[in-house]
């Protein structure tokens, strides 16, 4: 049975549990669980991080922990009972864990690794804390370390700052807001700046000495040296090195390492050095032989110096190699370091080239105790301490030190009968009073233990040696008296014995008879002669002799006259001994009473360090004197006491204050002193007002704290001794003293007067007295003293300094123990408030005011139940009454002030604001209902209340500002918001009661609503953006404050009634902003307000246009800021059911009307939101892509068409323009800006400043736009459009007679014309993209678009780009239309393939003599329609010959706008599909190949080709394919009896196919003749092979003789290229074939908007070859491709002869030829740029350049006859082999040739199978090359117009499947025949025969030849540079060249009448086709 748990409430999972049992709860190790019930070894509960899922789990898997339960019962919460630091660590590490993984994902490796280390460190420390074995101090250190690490991590991860007290997190509800602010501020400051340490230490570790000339032991001495004062700062550190230069005792680290301690900040400067002296121990001379003597001497070796400043930059222990220098002469040794510092190079040199001392040096900062904690290893391992000479900057009481430092300076010695100077060595001993040598009391330095004696250096042959060696004598204090130091002098012989011979001694006693020690300074000692050691044995004998020459008696001339002397310098550093006689006189006052006066007077001259040494003795002396003779010495003792007290204020001695406190508490015994002290103090105070010099009085008042301490302690001692006698007398004295104080304080003086300064001094020390007074007086009495004293201060104070001091005094009062007591607080509070209010009203000393207020409010706390004590309540009431108003004004004032410039000032400024804000919040949080009622009732008038409400609402708005607190102060912000919402709930009642109905005040209500809105929108309340744990904590503590405020807004709105109209439409924007917050409850509360607004607006004005306008405007700006989401759109849409539930509405307006308009608005808003959400999502991405542009276009169109919002429309035009510029889409940018340009007129109407436009006239803005657009058209190479705008501008300039600008404009226009002719333009590709699936944005979802590709962009690149833009999209691998499952799928599908553009403009493209540079524009601009072909098999597929069943499905797409336009892509509006039969396909392919051959032959004849290779390859491909059975496949398929019988309607087409085959054979024969003439020698064998193969081909076709009509025809080229399909493999059939399309009216702008279709890309033939060449699987090929037009991008041209040829051959059709088929298939599937190079440059001949046959035979016929069927107009296209466009034409041979027509065929009824019905011929692909050549034209066949190829734009079958067209020449380009010109479009006059034809094939000949061959335009560059060529004659006059081989007969043509009428009019039933965009060829 499950029973609720009592104690088992909380646990941690020890073992993972899968939860496989019924109701099992899966658990992971480390999860924390809350347990609800238990049953037989099982618990039931939930995981704390997911409390919604409950389940059971084994109890053995859980480690139970103690926990505290809140709200016992159903909603209980469990808090583990553990150290708060542990709790914080656990939760913080959990939060970090998730973020840590994200760092890895974001590739922030550095922080990832650092955080990982810190997390491991924290876990390790957590274990130590949990184990609980740490000492108290260690635990404290560990916690400090943990919190430091937690704070570091939080800061790095941008998490919140945690307020802490004593390492524990603070609950903001349990402390006052001011205290919370202080904690946050303290932690923030700590984070920002760390206080610089005042104490520094130098760590030295000696490693080794490296030198080549070692071999002796060394002694190394370090000390710190002041280069400025030329004196050592520290004692010496001494290290012994062995003969190898390594430390002698490596195991004892304290002998190698030291810490130079207590360096002050002033010691860290450039001229402070570390000086190292190195002494060798060995022979006298470094080079002496070893066996000379065994005695060793200390001899100079070298010196090294390094500046301490060099170490300041080094963070860690850096190893330094110090250069060691030796002095040139030994006598300079004592100052070698000074010479090195001064760089006196002549006096020293390097001791050896490789000599260096390796040491580690590091500066450490902080006090020594801190270092012990931080560098524990250093101290535990062992380090010696090297002290400063003298005391540190701060002397600590209790510090014991008694060190005497003696420096052996120099000596003067006589020769002593020697011929050379002596080698003098000094031995130093310390002897006690008994003459015994003190053991271990002579130290060379720290690092080595002290010895019994010390041997000095020996300087070679020097009678005036200078050693400068410092030794330390650490003699105990008790042994000082009677001890002396003896110096023995010996001469060191260098002879064999090497003995040291004594010749004299000196001595110095350490203490004088009067107890003074040896004074510091230099002493000249007498050298006493002595040659025997025995004479020194009894020291009592020589101690009687004089020791120093300074104190010799005048009669002792013998010693005075001696030249021998020895100088030492002594320095005592002792905390117990003194060298000062005056000090000793004072301390021994009883022995010499007569000297008391002098001693007291001299006390002020004694050094402070001497006084503090004997502080207790001195104080005892003073009070002893006072007790014994107060009358006589009272004043002097008082002054001395004041001097000592003030001495302790000095920073050096301030640590001695506790010593004095201890003295007063424990040792002071002056029970009677209080009377004298009070009397003298009062005497001084009474003299203040009249005294001229206030300095001494100020010193007295400065010491008043301790004087009162002595007074009070003395009185307490007296009371204890006498049982409280004279109490009244004492109280009277104190009252009188305070009266005197109050009198002098009440004096009004100028700030400069001495009295004012004295008042200031007293006020500074006064608060320190309170605590002392409380020891005797009651709290109320002391409070009374203070109140009266502070109350006497003059209110109108002129002294600014006094004002500041007065506030400081108040501040200290408020912070004192006295004020903390509630009893005294109620007495002091009015005084404090009065002074505070006065200052705050005048905005003076705000920093101090804030400090006082903070302290006051931090004392006021509510009890746990939320109620305040009566006393506290009264205090709050008083503070509210006095300060609330002024506090609000102050915050407003300082928030609106400009911030000061200096960083320090700015910091202070921010602090003040923050502190005042914290005070306001603390005060408001303490206010209860009663306080609010009293506050609101206290206002005398409505105006005052109104002003207060406006003020407090404004302040709240300031508090909500993001910059009010630092970013990571979330805790503080939440507390602020909690206080604000509580206060607003109270004040909203006042608003309702006082400012509604007739008393309505718009300003207050508006301020209220505005505050509420920004409250809800502030970032720190957007819980959705927080981590789950943080969100949970906030909700538990405060709830969702946004919802509370939202409910309050709704409630207040409902109360407004008819006053709501005042807020319509003003509040629509703010309320809309609130509804965009993603909080469902808040939205449900707020959205109905819009309905209410619409309702009231409808009542007022009969519509809600205002609401609608404001809603839409605001929605745009808010959503672009990132607000709103998909859920919001759906929720907003659900307003619809809310409409119409009000009866009042029904009475006034018909329900339907209201509802319709409402629903319409909501639908509009919803659709706008869809677009705005899409726009925002797109804009979040980085670089500009199509999605961003498409989205902007969608939004822009929506604003124009649906909303008619002109301003928003123009804004988005400019956003789109900027996107285009960024993406370098200059043409699209121009079209975009043109939208704005078209909105403007050429008028002088003034326009306001808008976006980046200045205020200007409409004319000026339109002019600026025109110029900008022209510039962008120029950059986008769309010069034709720019010319139109130039003309328009020129007309304007002309009309204003602005000839200067007119001239510039005409020059610009001319430059654009030049660019058209001279610059090359790239031809863009076009791609059809389908976006399917619900995951796409609304503007793309389930729509298809055609996109204009970037320059050089192939299908694969485009497809990759689209997949990058939509990374989650799936590329569809087929081209079929998707079904509904794809449309409705919850995914993204992309379907992409290339399409061919169908140009609109035919007249330019069909006109003769127009250069391709010009035509290229019309082929790729203003394209509405595009085409795509897909081959498929219909019926049974013949494996032997696939051509029988190969059909082509042709799809035509019509766009909503033409390309290019304001976007690179536009949506498809309509799609049409027709089918092309196999026979028509075959005709089209052969026709195209024939035209290609003609073109190449013509180019070769006219010498346009430098290289004959293209013609060679084309001939080879066609002949080789034909020989291998290519054309035979067509014969098999279509000339078989079965086919003819089964398809009687195809008789005409079969005849046409036969004609084309014969024509191809004839062209090949002619081509071979031309080839023979130009073929180079090395290619002759190939030519011969071609001729042989051609004869084979003829015989295979059964041709012996060509029919007469074939023979009679020359190679015939009409005025344009025969129509070739410029498409890719599956070229889509034009829809016009089956049914007409309503033709779009041609746009008027810019230029001509009609285009000829392109020729079919040369790869078309290749692609069909791929299709048909797969013996078994031709249709599968297309299903395999990602999109069928992967292979249908553009011209594909085969470059290698081994590519599968495209005529049907038995071999190619068979499965055995798999490799060739494979190659063919691969080639077909390539995008154009991957195909062989010839595919890249299409070279069709333009039909516009062909003279129709009837222009020669009958010039009256129109050029384009609409009565001809579309198939009749289709013409073959030349190959695109060569690189330059070639005009096709030849001189006319004879009119008779043109009259050789084949017998007319009777008209045939239209056949349904024709795939190309109603199709017009269209222009071929443009040439890429700007160079053109002119060629004499061939005489065209008179039947050219009527009998052109059958199908336009079908996949052209390459040579291996068509009649002998080789796959090598798979570059035939078939024209898209997509438009049918209306009858009126033909030229009404006959056109003359062409004279020159522009090339449409790029020639491979070089540049000069091309230029020479070009017919220059008038005034062209070529006219100036090249001699002008004569223009060729017209056809009828031209003479055929005699040198050429005989011309081919004209092409046979049959007149065929299709479904078109012959009367010159088109069928009225057929609608006019709409211009379709066409596919662009690809570079």
Report what the structure shows.
This protein is of the alpha+beta class. It has 66 helices and 40 strands. Helix 26 runs parallel beside helix 28 (903-926) and helix 28 (903-926) packs across helix 31 (970-994). The chain starts with a strand and ends in a 58-residue tail after the last helix. The model is unreliable at 1135-1152 and 1605-1979 (pLDDT under 50).
Major sheet: 6 strands, antiparallel
Residues in β-strands, percent? 5-15%
Strand tally, please?
A: 40
Q: So what's the overall shape? A: extended
Mean pLDDT across every amino acid position: 75
Helix and strand content put the structural class at alpha+beta
Low confidence ranges? 1135-1152, 1605-1979
Please give the radius of gyration in angstroms: 55 Å
Per-chain topology:
Blueprint: E1 3-4, E2 10-13, E3 32-39, E4 42-47, E5 50-58, E6 62-64, E7 67-70, E8 77-80, H1 84-105, H2 109-131, H3 136-156, E9 164-165, E10 168-169, H4 177-192, E11 199-210, E12 217-226, E13 231-232, E14 237-241, E15 257-264, E16 272-282, E17 297-307, E18 318-323, E19 325-327, H5 336-342, E20 348-350, E21 356-365, H6 368-374, H7 376-381, E22 384-386, E23 402-412, E24 424-431, E25 453-455, E26 466-473, E27 484-492, E28 500-509, E29 521-526, E30 528-529, H8 539-543, H9 557-561, E31 565-574, H10 581-587, H11 596-602, H12 608-613, H13 615-628, H14 630-647, H15 657-667, H16 673-686, H17 695-702, H18 704-722, H19 727-745, H20 754-765, H21 767-773, H22 779-791, H23 800-815, H24 817-820, H25 822-841, H26 846-858, H27 870-896, H28 903-926, H29 929-937, H30 942-960, H31 970-994, H32 1002-1017, H33 1028-1038, H34 1041-1056, H35 1068-1075, H36 1080-1101, H37 1105-1120, H38 1126-1133, H39 1143-1148, H40 1151-1179, H41 1186-1203, H42 1206-1222, H43 1226-1239, E32 1246-1247, E33 1256-1257, H44 1258-1275, H45 1279-1295, H46 1299-1318, E34 1326-1332, ...
Parallel strand pairs: 15-22, 36-37
Antiparallel strand pairs: 1-3, 2-3, 2-6, 3-4, 4-5, 7-8, 9-10, 11-15, 11-21, 12-13, 12-14, 12-16, 16-17, 18-21, 19-20, 23-26, 23-31, 24-25, 24-27, 27-28, 28-30, 29-31, 32-33, 34-35, 34-37, 35-40, 37-38, 38-39, 39-40
């Amino acid at each position: 049975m499950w029973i609720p748990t009592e104690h088992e409430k909380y646990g941690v999972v020890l073992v993972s549990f899968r939860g496989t049992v019924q109701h099992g709860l899966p658990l992971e190790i480390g999860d924390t669980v809350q347990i609800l019930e238990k049953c037989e070894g099982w618990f039931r509960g939930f995981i704390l991080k997911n409390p919604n899922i409950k389940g059971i789990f084994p109890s053995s898997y859980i480690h139970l922990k103690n926990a505290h339960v809140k709200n016992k019962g159903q909603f209980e919460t469990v808090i583990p009972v553990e150290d708060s630091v542990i709790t914080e660590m656990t939760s913080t590490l959990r939060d970090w864990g998730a973020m840590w993984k994200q760092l890895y994902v974001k590739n922030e490796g550095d922080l990832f690794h650092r955080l990982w280390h810190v997390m491991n460190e924290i876990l390790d420390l957590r274990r130590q804390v949990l184990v609980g074995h740490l000492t108290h101090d260690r635990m404290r250190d560990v916690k400090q370390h943990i919190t430091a690490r937690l704070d570091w991590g939080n800061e790095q991860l941008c998490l919140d700052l945690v307020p802490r007290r004593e390492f524990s997190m603070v609950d903001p509800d349990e402390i006052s807001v001011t205290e919370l602010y202080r904690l946050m501020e303290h932690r923030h400051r700590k984070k920002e700046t760390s206080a610089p340490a005042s104490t520094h230490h130098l760590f030295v570790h000696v490693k080794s000495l490296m030198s080549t000339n070692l071999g002796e032991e060394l002694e190394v001495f370090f000390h710190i040296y002041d280069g400025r004062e030329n004196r050592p700062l520290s004692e010496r550190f001494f290290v012994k090195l062995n003969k190898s230069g390594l430390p002698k005792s490596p195991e004892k680290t304290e002998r190698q390492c030291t810490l130079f301690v207590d360096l002050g900040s002033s010691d860290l400067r450039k001229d402070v050095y570390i000086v190292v002296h190195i002494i060798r121990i060995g022979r006298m001379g470094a080079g002496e032989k070893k066996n000379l003597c065994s005695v060793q001497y200390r001899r100079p070796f070298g010196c090294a110096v390094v500046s301490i400043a060099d170490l300041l930059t080094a963070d860690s222990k850096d190893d330094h190699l110090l250069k060691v220098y030796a002095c040139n002469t030994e006598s300079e040794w004592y100052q070698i370091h000074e010479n090195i510092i001064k760089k006196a190079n002549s006096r020293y040199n390097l001791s050896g080239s490789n000599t260096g001392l390796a040491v580690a040096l590091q500066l450490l900062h902080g006090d020594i105790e801190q270092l012990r904690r931080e560098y524990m290893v250093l101290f535990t391992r062992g380090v010696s301490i090297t002290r400063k000479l003298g005391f540190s900057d701060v002397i600590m009481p209790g510090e014991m030190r008694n060190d005497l430092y003696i420096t052996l300076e120099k000596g003067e010695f006589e020769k002593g009968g020697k011929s050379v100077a002596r080698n003098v060595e000094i031995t130093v001993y310390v002897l006690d009073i008994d003459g015994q040598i003190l053991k271990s009391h002579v130290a060379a330095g720290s690092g080595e233990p002290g010895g019994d004696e010390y041997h000095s250096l020996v300087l070679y042959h020097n009678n005036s040696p200078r050693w400068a060696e410092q030794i330390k004598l650490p003699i105990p204090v008790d042994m000082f008296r009677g001890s002396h130091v003896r110096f023995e002098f010996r001469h060191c012989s260098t002879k064999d014995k090497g003995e040291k011979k004594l010749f004299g001694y000196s001595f110095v006693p350490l203490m004088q008879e009067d107890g003074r020690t040896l004074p510091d300074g230099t002493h000249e000692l007498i050298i006493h002669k002595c040659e025997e050691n025995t004479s020194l044995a009894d020291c009592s004998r020589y101690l009687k002799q004089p020791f120093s020459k300074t104190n010799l008696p005048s009669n002792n001339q013998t010693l005075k006259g001696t030249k021998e002397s020895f100088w030492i310098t002594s320095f005592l550093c002792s905390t117990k001994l003194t060298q000062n006689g005056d000090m000793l006189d004072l301390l021994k006052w009883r022995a010499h009473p007569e000297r008391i006066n002098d001693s007291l007077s001299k006390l002020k001259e004694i050094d402070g360090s001497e006084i503090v040494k004997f502080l207790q003795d001195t104080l005892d002396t003073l009070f002893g004197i006072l007790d014994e003779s107060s009358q006589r010495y009272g004043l002097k003792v008082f002054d001395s006491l004041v001097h000592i007290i003030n001495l302790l204020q000095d920073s050096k001695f301030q640590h001695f204050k506790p010593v004095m406190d201890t003295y007063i508490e424990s040792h002071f015994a002056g029970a009677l002193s209080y009377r004298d002290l009070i009397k003298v103090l009062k005497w001084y105070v009474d003299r203040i007002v009249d005294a001229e010099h206030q300095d001494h009085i100020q010193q007295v008042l400065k010491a008043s704290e301790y004087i009162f301490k002595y007074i009070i302690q003395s009185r307490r001692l007296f009371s204890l001794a006498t049982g409280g006698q004279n109490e009244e007398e004492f109280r009277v004295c104190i009252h009188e003293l305070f009266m005197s104080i109050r009198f002098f304080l009440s004096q009004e003086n100028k700030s400069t007067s001495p009295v004012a300064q004295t008042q200031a001094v007293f006020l500074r020390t006064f608060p320190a007295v309170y605590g002392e007074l409380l020891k005797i007086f009651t709290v109320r009495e002391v409070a009374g003293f203070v109140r009266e004293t502070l109350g006497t201060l003059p209110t109108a104070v002129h002294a600014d300094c006094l004002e500041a001091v007065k506030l400081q005094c108040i501040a200290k009062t408020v912070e004192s123990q006295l004020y903390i007591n509630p009893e005294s607080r109620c007495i002091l509070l009015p005084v404090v408030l009065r002074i505070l209010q006065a200052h705050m009203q005048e905005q003076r000393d705000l920093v101090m005011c804030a400090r006082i207020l903070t302290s006051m409010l931090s004392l006021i706390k509510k009890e746990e139940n939320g109620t305040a004590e009566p006393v506290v309540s009264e205090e709050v009431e008083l503070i509210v009454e006095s300060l609330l108003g002024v506090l609000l004004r102050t915050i407003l004032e300082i928030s609106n002030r400009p911030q000061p410039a200096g960083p320090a000032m700015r910091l202070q400024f921010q602090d003040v604001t923050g502190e005042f804000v914290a005070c306001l919040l603390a005060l408001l949080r303490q206010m209860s209902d009663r306080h609010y009622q009293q506050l609101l009732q206290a206002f005398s008038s409505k105006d005052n209340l109104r002003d207060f409400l406006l003020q407090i609402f404004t302040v709240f708005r300031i508090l909500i500002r993001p910059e009010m607190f630092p970013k990571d102060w979330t805790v503080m912000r939440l507390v602020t918001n909690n206080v604000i919402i509580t206060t607003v709930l109270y004040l909203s009642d006042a608003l309702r009661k006082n400012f509604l109905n007739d008393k309505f005040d718009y300003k207050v209500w508006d301020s209220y609503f505005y505050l509420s809105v920004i409250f809800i929108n502030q970032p720190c309340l957007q819980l959705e953006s927080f981590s789950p744990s943080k969100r949970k904590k906030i909700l538990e503590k405060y709830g969702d404050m946004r919802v509370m405020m939202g409910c309050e807004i709704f409630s207040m709105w409902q109360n407004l009634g008819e006053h709501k109209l005042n807020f319509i439409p003003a509040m629509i924007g703010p309320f809309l902003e609130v509804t965009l917050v993603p909080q469902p409850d808040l939205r449900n509360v707020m959205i109905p307000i819009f309905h209410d607004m619409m309702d009231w607006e409808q009542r007022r004005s009969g519509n809600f246009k205002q609401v609608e306008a404001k809603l839409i405007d605001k929605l745009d700006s808010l959503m672009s800021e990132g607000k709103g989401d998909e859920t919001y759109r759906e929720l907003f849409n659900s307003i619809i059911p809310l409409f119409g539930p009000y009866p009042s509405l029904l009475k006034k307006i018909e329900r339907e009307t209201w509802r319709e308009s409402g629903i319409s608005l909501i639908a509009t808003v919803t659709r706008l939101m869809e677009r705005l959400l899409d726009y925002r999502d797109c804009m979040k991405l980085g670089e500009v892509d199509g999605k961003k542009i498409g989205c902007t276009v969608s939004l822009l169109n929506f604003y124009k068409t649906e909303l008619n919002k002109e301003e928003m429309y123009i804004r988005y035009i400019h956003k789109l323009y900027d996107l285009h510029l960024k993406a370098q889409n200059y043409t699209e940018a121009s079209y975009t800006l043109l939208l704005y340009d078209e909105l403007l007129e050429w008028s002088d109407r003034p326009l306001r400043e808008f976006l980046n436009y200045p205020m200007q006239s409409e004319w000026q803005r339109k002019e600026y736009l025109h110029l900008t657009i022209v510039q962008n058209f120029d950059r986008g190479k769309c010069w034709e459009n720019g010319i139109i705008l130039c003309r328009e501008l020129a007309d304007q300039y002309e009309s204003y007679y602005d000839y200067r600008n007119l001239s510039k404009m005409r020059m610009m226009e001319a430059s654009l014309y030049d660019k058209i002719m001279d610059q090359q333009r790239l031809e863009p590709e076009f791609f059809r993209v389908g976006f399917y699936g619900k995951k796409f944005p609304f503007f793309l979802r389930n729509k298809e678009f055609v996109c204009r590709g970037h320059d050089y962009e192939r299908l694969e690149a485009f497809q990759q780009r689209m997949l990058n833009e939509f990374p989650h999209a799936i590329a569809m691998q087929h081209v079929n239309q998707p079904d509904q499952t794809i449309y409705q799928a919850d995914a993204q599908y992309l379907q992409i393939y290339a399409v061919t553009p169908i140009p609109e403009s035919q007249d330019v493209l069909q006109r003769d003599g127009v250069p391709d540079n010009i035509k290229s524009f019309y082929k790729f601009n203003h394209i509405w329609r595009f085409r795509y072909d897909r081959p498929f098999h219909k019926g049974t597929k013949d494996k032997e010959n696939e051509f029988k069943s190969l059909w082509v499905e042709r799809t035509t797409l019509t766009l909503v706008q033409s390309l290019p336009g304001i976007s690179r892509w536009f949506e498809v509006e309509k799609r049409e599909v027709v089918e092309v039969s196999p026979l028509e396909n075959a005709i089209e392919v052969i026709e195209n190949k024939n035209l290609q051959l003609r073109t190449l032959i013509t180019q070769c004849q006219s010498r346009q080709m430098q290289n004959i290779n293209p013609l060679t390859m084309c001939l080879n491909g066609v002949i080789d394919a034909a020989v291998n059975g290519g054309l035979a496949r067509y014969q098999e398929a279509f000339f078989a009896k079965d086919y003819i019988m089964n398809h009687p309607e195809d008789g005409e087409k079969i005849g046409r196919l036969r004609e084309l085959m014969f024509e191809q054979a004839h062209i090949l024969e002619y081509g071979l003749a031309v080839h023979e003439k130009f073929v180079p020698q090395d290619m002759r064998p190939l030519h011969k092979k071609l001729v042989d193969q051609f004869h084979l081909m003829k015989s295979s076709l059964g041709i012996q003789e060509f029919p007469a009509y074939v023979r009679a025809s020359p190679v015939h080229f009409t005025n344009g290229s025969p129509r070739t399909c410029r498409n890719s493999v599956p070229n889509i059939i034009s829809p016009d074939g089956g049914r007409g399309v309503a033709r779009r009216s041609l746009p008027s702008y810019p230029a001509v908007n009609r285009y000829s279709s392109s020729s079919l890309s040369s790869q078309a033939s290749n692609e069909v070859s791929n299709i048909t060449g797969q013996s078994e699987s031709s249709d599968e090929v297309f299903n395999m491709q990602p999109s069928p037009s992967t292979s249908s991008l553009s011209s594909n041209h085969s470059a290698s002869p081994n590519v599968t040829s495209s005529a049907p051959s038995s071999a190619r059709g068979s499965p055995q030829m798999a490799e060739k088929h494979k190659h063919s298939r691969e080639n077909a599937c390539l995008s154009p740029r991957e195909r062989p190079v010839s595919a890249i440059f299409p070279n069709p001949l333009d039909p516009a350049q062909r003279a129709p046959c009837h222009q020669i035979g009958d010039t009256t016929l129109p050029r384009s006859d609409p009565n001809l069927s579309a198939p009749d107009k289709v013409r073959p296209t030349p190959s695109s082999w060569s690189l330059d466009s070639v005009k096709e034409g030849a001189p006319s041979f004879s009119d008779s040739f043109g009259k050789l027509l084949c017998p007319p065929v009777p008209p045939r009824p239209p056949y349904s199978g024709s795939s190309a019905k109603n199709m017009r011929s269209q222009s071929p692909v443009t040439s890429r090359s700007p160079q053109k050549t002119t060629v004499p034209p061939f005489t065209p066949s008179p039947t050219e117009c009527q009998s052109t190829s059958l199908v336009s734009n079908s996949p052209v079958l390459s040579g291996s499947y068509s009649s002998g067209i080789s796959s090598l020449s798979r570059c035939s380009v078939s024209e898209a025949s997509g438009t049918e010109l209306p009858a009126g479009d033909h030229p009404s006059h006959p056109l003359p025969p062409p004279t020159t034809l522009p090339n449409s094939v790029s020639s491979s000949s070089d540049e000069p030849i091309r230029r020479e061959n070009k017919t220059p335009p008038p005034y062209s560059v070529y006219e100036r540079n090249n001699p002008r060529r004569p223009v060729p004659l017209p056809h009828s006059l031209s003479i055929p060249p005699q040198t050429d081989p005989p011309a081919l007969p004209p092409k046979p043509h049959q007149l065929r009448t299709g479904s078109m009428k012959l009367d010159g009019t088109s069928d009225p039933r057929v609608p006019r086709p709409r211009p379709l965009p066409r596919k662009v060829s690809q570079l």
